[in-house]
User: What shape does this take?
Amino acid sequence: MVKPKIAPSMLSSDFANLASEAERMIRCGADWLHMDIMYSHFVPNLTIGAPVIESLRKHTEAYLDCHLMVTNPLDYVEPLGKAGASGFTFHVEASKDNWRELVQQIKSKGMKPGVSLKPGTPIEEVYPLIEDENPVEMVLVMTVEPGFGGQKFMPEMMDKVRALRKKYPSLDIEVDGGLGPSTIDLAASAGANCIVAGSSVFGASDPAHVISLLRKTVED
Ligand code: DX5
Ligand code: ZN
Assistant: This one.
């Protein structure tokens, strides 16, 4: 069966203290660190890129789960590979013409390829990438419009998660946006196993407790 992976979104961390925030999350029981790489042509926000990943890599051995919200993901494969990214998840909306090349390049740089989709994108659009002879290894279902932390979870996205889990019992399925103690039941019962959580973890007085609660709900 698929393993739970709890991935605090570092977008909600104190970016001025990124290394110690990362260390704190790992101490609190995080499996992965979710790194939101946004460029404002794809989403209405701008965050970090390969130089920050490279700096953080010097301070942690943690799995860096990079979520690329950019229009030209191929341009970021080499720099992020060199910087020490672990996972490279691109958006299907931004890779219509070149996803095969992208997946191949991501794997050749030693990263795990994933594909993500926005709330308005039908789930069928990612099926060819999972069924290809050189497939993606994770699907990230957005449960908010990408761009910002702290938004409200969209429960109607669970239909996508259920459809994926039914078709692909051993696939890593990640959900991202508005996840926390009040929404994890829906995501876990739909079949998600990789859980991104930003504001619910960083805003908690006891982040370790939230992380363990998320993990337990996925395990049950
Ligand atoms: C939104 C990002 C998310 C975000 C999640 O575009 O992809 O990773 O940080 O934050 P919360 O958990 O606060 O919704
Ligand atoms: Zn994200």
About this structure: The chain has one domain: 5-219. The two ends are 12 Å apart (CA to CA). The domain at 5-219 is CATH 3.20.20.70 (TIM Barrel). The longest strand covers residues 32-38.
